[in-house]
Amino acid sequence: MMTIPNIVGAGLIVIGAGLGIGKIGGSAMEAIARQPEASGKIQTAMLIAAALIEGIGFAALFAA
């Protein structure tokens, strides 16, 4: 059974992960707009970073 602090902690984890992934996506779009020829490398780095943030978010949710 989840208590109120656990629920609040889980909510903060989800919000933080969402903001992090959003920031990565926005920055990647700006970088691609500035250098379209590097879009493949930028997308790859963006996806790896987003996956790592999501993984940390899941691990934190299980710990909460």
Number of helical segments? 2
Strand content: under 5%
Radius of gyration: 15 Å
- The helix/strand class is mainly alpha
The tally of strands reads 0
As a percent range, the share of helical residues equals over 70%
Major pleated sheet? none
Morphology call? elongated
SSE order, one letter for each helix or strand: HH
Low-pLDDT regions: none
The average pLDDT score comes to 94
Ends: how far apart?
Answer: 12 Å
Protein name: ATP synthase subunit c
Site (Reversibly protonated during proton transport): 54
GO molecular function: lipid binding; proton-transporting ATP synthase activity, rotational mechanism
Transmembrane segments: 6-24, 45-63
Overview of the structural elements:
The chain has 64 residues and is an all-alpha fold. It has a domain at 26-63. Helix content is 88%, strand content 0%. The chain contains 2 helices and no strands. The chain has helices at 4-34, 39-63. Helix 1 runs antiparallel to helix 2. It is elongated. The model has no long low-confidence stretch (mean pLDDT 94).
Question: Helix and strand layout, with pairings?
Answer:
Blueprint: H1 4-34, H2 39-63
Helix pairs in contact: 1-2
Top keywords for this entry?
mainly alpha; 2 helices
